[in-house]
User: What shape does this take?
Amino acid sequence: MDKYDAVVIGAGNGGLVAAIRLLQGGAKVLLVEKHNIPGGFATSFRRGRFEFEASLHELNDFGPKDNGGDVRDLFDSLGVTDKIEWVPIPDAYRVICKNEKLDALMPFGIKAYIDKMEKYVPGSRDSVTKFFTLADETRKAQAYTNAKNGVVDSSYMVKNHGNYVRTGSYSVSEVLDSLKMPQKAKDILSAYWCYLGAHCDDLSFTHYASMVIRYISRGAMMPKGRSHEISLAMCERIRELGGDIWFNTEAEKIVTGADGGVEGVILKGGRQIKTRHVIANCAPHLVYGKMMDNVPESVVRATNARKFSGRGFCMFLGLNKTADELGIENHNYFLYDTSDSVRQYEIMKKISTNAAQATVCLNRAYPECSPAGTAMMYFTTLYMSDDWGNVKPQDYARTKEKVANMMISRFEEYTGCKIKDSIEEIAVATPMTYARYCGHPEGVIYGYESQYWDGLNPRLQMMAQDHVTRGLRFAGGYSMRLSGYSSAYFSGDITGRQTIGDIKKEGN
Assistant: This one.
């Protein structure tokens, strides 16, 4: 029987980082992945002469060497930064809400962002400046909590990060209201909300503020080889450190002993791995529902109490004209029916009504990402209910086509760019696609919803106690850092370090 100090299940972002951290801590590590490539969502694929990015719009908090930010610092410490060729993203985002005559293009850089907001919304400078002051304190408090693996000194937190503590139980809307921010400024500032899959009345302020400042303060980057380049670089690093990676290998069972703790993993086909430590880079619903026996009822209840976030729908277009020829001016667009996130959230529950989108044209950052004379785009929306579960098999293809056409029409209407007649390649992924390929319940791509009662702050504060099965921890979008690329990377970092601590305590 094979024996490892730790087994990581799933080669998504969190699992890859966790494996590196375990190896850096001296553990013998096996990473198993049911597919033939790493990355999960962090990958790319080809259609015709186009290589499409599967999910990443841009990687935030990744500045230059002299002002790198937390994400770059993490990649540096993992030893993967220099294995990847990076390109900068030109602007933060353009948000358009045609019904409300809102059209704002926002830059990177806090000063530039505040100055631009003041031009769009005179009188907003003071409240937006206060927002970024709060956001910066949030980022620093989270860095401290991460470094302490959730075991924090409460007196230190109150003394040094009091505003973070005070805002921790409030929503985005509540804090922005308290800052007396003008409504139009709130509408522009809140454009990123769909990246976290919860409307601003429920969305944790600390989670949102942490994300926004990571984007705006240092800009964002994109790997030339798409997110798959990051995944491959991390695999290379794992092998350099002596770790084993088994692709086309599905973990079916996590074996527990008499004390309820982890004793091993059974792979599909019956092969058994002996280990006392498992990091699961997958949904707790999957682990507790299918991979473990004798799960305590309290764990089942706690897991079921959490709310799934958005189900993913992505469309990928290869166009036979350049971005300039088509009039596509920006890298990142947010297109909404309404700037009221609560109303927009409700609209996004139904297939028949949802045409909201976060749309990227990578050529604006990296012109050579597609063949000469072409451009490529990818469109993303979320469904805030399991409406795709109501689609009959015989209607599935027709429904995909309907939604794709609706999103194309919305982009043309809102931007004036006529792209439909220039489509050379098209690929569409629905929530059913993500459920099938990545094992995510209902096709969820953002883990559990970041509500104010179950957001980033309480999860970070409780992560030292959120360990109910001896030897089992989670990484990725369903764990303590919640959804998104940087959150998944940090969750893998934390979980890997925590597991090394567990191993050392056991004297393994």
Observations:
- The CA atoms of residues 22 and 500 lie 6 Å apart.
- The chain has a mean pLDDT of 92.
